[in-house]
Write a structure and sequence with these properties.
The protein is of the alpha+beta class and about 170 residues long. It is about 35% helix and about 40% strand. The protein has 5 helices and 7 strands; from the N terminus they run βαααβββαβαββ. The chain is globular.
């Protein structure tokens, strides 16, 4: 597996990977209408392009050298809070789950974070999403809950999780 720094020219690929992974990851958790709404909201060309303009926001594509294919992506932001990096997005297409790509991507993120001097990684995960167990297996712990109104009658009902890089 290789992590390749994404550029604005990769926006269509990020959008495709997001759609493929979301349709699997969130089936049975949130409605198809909410999935479509959130993809339009969070993965529009305008939204992702704005992330690329932010100097502390990074996207990396997860590339499988064996299959010569992109399997997912990770998006994170250094300095989200004091000494804190926020993992905004980590998604894998369904056929690549269970192959160690997620763990390797998180290991990469942990190395990036310690190199920037941040001591904490935070993320939100849907309360029903089985990914919570994966994050716990990688050392993340719950520290809160949040319900965010995202418009159009939809909310994100999430656990807040953190990984402390020191201590």
């Amino acid at each position: 597996m290789e992590l390749i720094k994404a550029t604005e020219s990769d926006i269509p690929l990020i959008q495709d990977l997001a759609k493929r992974s979301w349709e699997s990851a969130y089936a049975g958790i949130i409605s198809d209408r909410q999935i479509a709404y959130m993809l339009d909201l969070m993965y529009s060309e305008k939204e992702i392009s704005a992330h690329f303009q932010h100097p502390h926001y990074h996207y990396y594509l997860i590339f499988d050298e064996n299959n010569k294919s992109f399997e997912g992506f990770i998006g994170y932001e250094h300095g989200y809070e004091e000494q804190t990096t926020k993992l905004h997005r980590i998604y894998l297409v369904p056929e690549s789950k269970g192959k160690g790509f997620g763990k390797k991507a998180l290991d990469f993120l942990k190395a990036q974070v310690s190199g920037k001097g941040d001591t904490r990684i935070i993320l939100n995960v849907n309360k029903i999403n089985s990914a919570r167990k994966f994050y716990e297996s990688q050392g993340f712990k719950m520290y809160g809950e949040v319900v965010v109104d995202i418009g159009n009658g939809f909310v994100m009902d999430d656990f807040e999780m953190e990984f402390l890089t020191h201590g």
